[in-house]
Amino acid sequence: MTMANQLEIKSKNDWLSWAFERLQSAARSVRLSVPRGMGESFWNRFLEIAMYKKRGLAITVLVDPDPTTPDDLFHVLRALPELEALGHEVSWAAAADLGYFLMIIDEANAIVVAGNLSEGVDLCFSEYIDTGERVSELRKAFDRRIADGIWGIDPEAWKEWLHHASLRKPTKSSIRQVEKAQKRLKYIVPKALKKLPKRNCWLLKPRDSAFGVPEPPGIHHWRECVKHDIICMGWPNYTRTVSPGNLPKKDSFARQIRNAYPDVTNFNRAFATLRHFQVDMNINDRVAAIEGWSYQQRTLVRFHGWTRVLDNPEQHEGDNGCGLIRQANWQRYELDLPVDAVREATGLQSSTHPIHRISDGAFRRLIALAEEIRRNKGDLQLVLDLTVMNNTPVPNGLFG
Length: 400
Prior knowledge:
By secondary structure, the chain is of the alpha+beta class. 42% of the residues lie in helices and 20% in strands.
């Protein structure tokens, strides 16, 4: 059966009302593609609803990179950072269009709309789906398309590229000229987007010394991270002489570390750690804080929480040994995760360095694992509480 036979013809206002009603009821996650031709009105309404959500949603957006529809692109690229500023966890990828508009709410129901969705067209094919098997199929198709796309392109860099990109349009109406222009776009757009700045994701071990040197007793870097809402690690006082955001030459760095800390031998690790923290890490990157996790570890991995990077490196005045810091807004979990599940989520066998760069997908899987463990922990606690209540005698007269 074709999609047209499955779907019911509805007016544009009908499916928009459906979509926004379901968005208002969303409790955990939203997956959606970009509705072609809807422009500013759609995203303004989307942002308005997102603003009043008491709990942040995991929002994943499939962005069609076709630069011949710049209005749609500019509006979604404007909305992405605004959604993040409202406290939602937002992911996006540039990927080929599905051919229809799709919104999946909480992995429980979905809205599919086919046809021209522009403001001037009043009819389209739309369907609301709430059967688990069909929603699961749509979710898997969406996730496959997202996984094949280009993740986390910086929205501002993308808009800047769109503004200055030299994308010549065909001057003749012949089919051959149109096909030639389309082939050129398919070649140059993905190539250009891959070169744009991306949002990075990191694993951080806040109790590890950045340079592998013994630290004085009493330094608890995670406590400092939480107390001051900062990202910090075990930085010897050497970093107080480093200008924030600047990277010293590797030879000079090794010489100074060797003179100050003769026990340090792994200069490559030390320099890579400093480079990641000083240069590679960008504002709006995601950082997950963990503790432990060696190669032969069979015990649980402590997951402290995650944050967005809010600022560039700066000097931190204090006696905690953390000279360089970045501002943060930690979402705390404080959970113990099974080490095998962490390995499967991140694709890493261990986290031996203080900072590891991981993919956006690995970061999302790690957060999803933590959410599942926290949810199961809450369910278990509820069962225990109910068990205690059911086995506790009720004093006479308690209910009148």
